[in-house]
Amino acid sequence: GASEDELTDFYASFTGASADLGALTHEKKMLIMRRVMAGDIARLTREFLRTVDPWGADPDDAMDEARVALAEVIAALHVYRTYVLPDGSAHDSDETILRDASASARDRAPHVSPVVFDRVEEALLTWDEPKNREFLMRFQQATGPIMAKGVEDTVFYNFNRFVALNEVGGDPGAFGTKIGDFHDAASRASAGHPLSMLGSSTHDTKRSEDVRARLAVLAEIPGAWAAAVERWSQMAARHRQGNLPDRNTEYLLWQTLVGAWPLDAERVTSFLTKAMREAKRYTSWLDQKPAYENATLSFTRSVMGDEDIVDDIRSFVAPLISPGRVNSLTQTLIKLTYPGVPDTYQGTELWNLSLVDPDNRRPVDYELRRDLLKQALTVEAAEAWERADEGLPKMFLIARALDLRARRPQAFGKDSPYEAIPSDGALADRIVGYTRAGEVAVVVPRLPLTTQREGWGDTVVELPPGRWRDEFTEADFSGGRLSAPELLSAFPVALLVRS
Questions:
Q1: pLDDT on residue 54
Q2: Which of 292, 272, 267, 296 is nearest to 282 (CA)?
Q3: Which pTM value belongs to this model?
Q4: Which one-letter DSSP state was computed for residue 491?
Q5: DSSP-derived secondary structure for 132-153
Q6: Where are the beta strands (DSSP E) in 253-359?
């Protein structure tokens, strides 16, 4: 989180693009309602006008005013949809969500008469009125796809400040999470929705979990990253065609290359073709601009064929690979032990540097995974980590964590308490630890590149009383103050069971 301002400033200066995510989100949701879902909005408006009392406008003006007001409320909605049921029952939060959206819409559209927004708000919040229900059901059915098309499929390809955050279910504006907030969220999940699916990659993710894990390392070195991008851009200037590609797309390209390296030109150009059209800024699926697309793709192929640039990128990526893998193991172990039900997307049992579909739907080598699974069940932790290039550490972790879940299901069920484990010392904020049901303990590092360079120093973890065994290293520990290196030297993460 400490790098947010530096990375935001560099993004704005390099690309000239706005870093105002809220304004961009509003703009793109309105775009979807004009271009893609205009028919849905028109029908919703007609349904709305059938349910409310007129406000003195003639029919044409009323239609226009109502359409604008409804679109503004939908654009201001910060969730996919509310869940008011046909019988009029709703969650307490639904009213707050709708009132907040209405208030934001009024601020953005002062040219629309307040009485129109009054009528919209009345129709959305009068749940016990049978005449409103058809409108309300259609409103709720429309807001989800507008959010998905406007944000996931448009904003996520325009707001390229730090694309590791541009993920389905995530928030590109949420740059880093404090450890205390992480524990609070886990406690709420344990108490309120302990059976939610925990997915780190799906068929619909924009980048695989391992691409994001590597890109996350850039937040530890914002200055070096900015310098590298400036250098590569200058080296690639000879491949540009006038002012193409635009700087925002170019910045997306550099992040893509670093996150998914090594990859060939065909995969990159396929990704960029989709990204450009989804962004809907200079070209789109419905209105393709071959000159713009061809210039961008020609630039990309030239970059991929420029040995000086490729060598520089390869050298820059090399020291990021190991800490990126540590990040991957950290998030994988959390996924397998956090309150909820973990899901492993096909192919991600090993390192998987896939981009958006169809790249993440390439054939999976299951024979390789079967072979490495057999080895993962018998190999020692140190050897698994030494064979990191094969992807063995990830398979090793998944196999052993799932085996523990099978042996100790009571530690991971819907009634299994979650408790944070405290840490202390110079780098206490680099450790995340917690217990499940008091019998399983998880300890993982964060910011691995910085920790690798600085060492752990006097950092300790306060393990609960008792005797503990690490499922990965098979080392035994007594509860109390344990040094971080003692826990995390043989393997980057720890999964301990009270013995």
A1: 77
A2: 292
A3: 0.95
A4: S
A5: HHHHHHHHHHHHHHHHIIIIIT
A6: 341-343
pLDDT in tens, 442-477: 999 999 999 999 899 999 999 999 999 999 999 999
Characterize 318-354 residue by residue with b for buried, 16 or more Cβ atoms within 10 angstroms of its Cβ, and e for exposed.
eebebbbbbbbbbbbbbbbbbbbebebbebbbbbbbb
Other C-beta atoms closer than 10 Å to the C-beta of 169 total 10
Question: Alpha-carbon dihedral of residues 317, 322, 327, 332, nearest 10 degrees?
Answer: 120
68-85 per-position pLDDT tens digit: 999 999 999 999 999 999
CA angle, 152 as apex, 147 and 155 as ends, to 5°? 95
The encoded tokens of residue 442 equal 């998880």
In this prediction, residue 322 has a pLDDT band, given cuts at 50, 70 and 90, of very high
Distance CA 397, CA 213 (A): 16
Q: Are 347 and 353 in contact (CB under 8 A)?
A: no
Residue 84: is it exposed, middle or buried by C-beta count within 10 angstroms (0-12/13-18/19+)? buried
Contact 182, 444 (CB under 8 A): no
Q: What share of the chain is helix, strand, coil (3-state, %, to 5)?
A: 60, 10, 30
Q: Which of 316, 160, 118 is nearest to 231 (CA)?
A: 316
**Residue 197 per-residue DSSP state:** E
Which tokens sit at 457? 């120093």
User: At 419, which amino acid appears?
Assistant: E
